[in-house]
Every structure is written in structure tokens, then in C-alpha cells.
Write the C-alpha cells for this entry.
Amino acid sequence: MKKSIDEKLEEAFNIPTSVGSIIEVPKELPAVIDHSTSDLNKDYQTVRENLHSIIQKGSAAIDGILHVASEGDSPRAYEVVSQLIKSVADANKDLLQLHKQLKEITQESSGSTQSAQNITNQSIFVGSTTELQKLLKNQMQEIRQIENDDQ
């Protein structure tokens, strides 16, 4: 006798597949581990170390090539020196950009709203002039009260 697909699945996965079957669910769910911050810090350190290494090696290479350029008076050697200086300067900018990006990422993940500001360029009051006058009068009273409290 042939087994049905449901029977084969029940046998293979050791679970009932028929409709209305009761499946026991573990009471404790597995813990979710958030590696995003540790990965972020590891990646940051790796990139930072690489950029520092590039800057150090670039500076040493500049010194060596500059010596060769001054000895040989070759225009090509001076061109290589200028390109290397630009590359090292770019690596320095990248290092500073890395710090800025990390700061932005950590502020976003912590939910910090210090950098975000609500700016209202245009606002519309919907109501009567009497309501507007009452609103302005109340705000003026609050401002005066705050000023009096500060003195």
C-alpha cells in the first residue's frame, strides 16, 4: 500500500500534518541575539586600523619617492609624488568621514533626536479671529510669566 504525501511528511519531519492536529509549541522562545552593535564596532575598528595603516605606509612612500624624485629630477617621479600625496590626503578625509558616519549611525540606533529639528516654514490657522486673538493672548501671558519667573 502506498503512503500519502501527508503520511510521508509526518514520518519525515515527525510532526502531524492532518488538519485539526495539535502541535506542541515550546513555552520559551529562543533568545534573539542582536549582533548589529558588536559587528558595527568590529567593522569600525577594522576600517579604522586599515585607514591608519594606509596613511602610515603612504607617508613613508612619499618620503621615499620624494627622495628619488629629487635625486633624478624626473618629471614622472614628481607626478607620482603628487598622486601619492593626494591619495594620503583622501585617506585622511576618509578617516574623518568614518567617525562622522559612526556617530550618525549610533544616534539613529539610539533614537536620539538632538540633531533633528522641527522647522515649520509655513503654518495656517484655521478658526475665527476671536479664537486667534485668544490663542495669541494666552501665549503672550505664558511668555510674560516665564520672563517674570527668570527674573
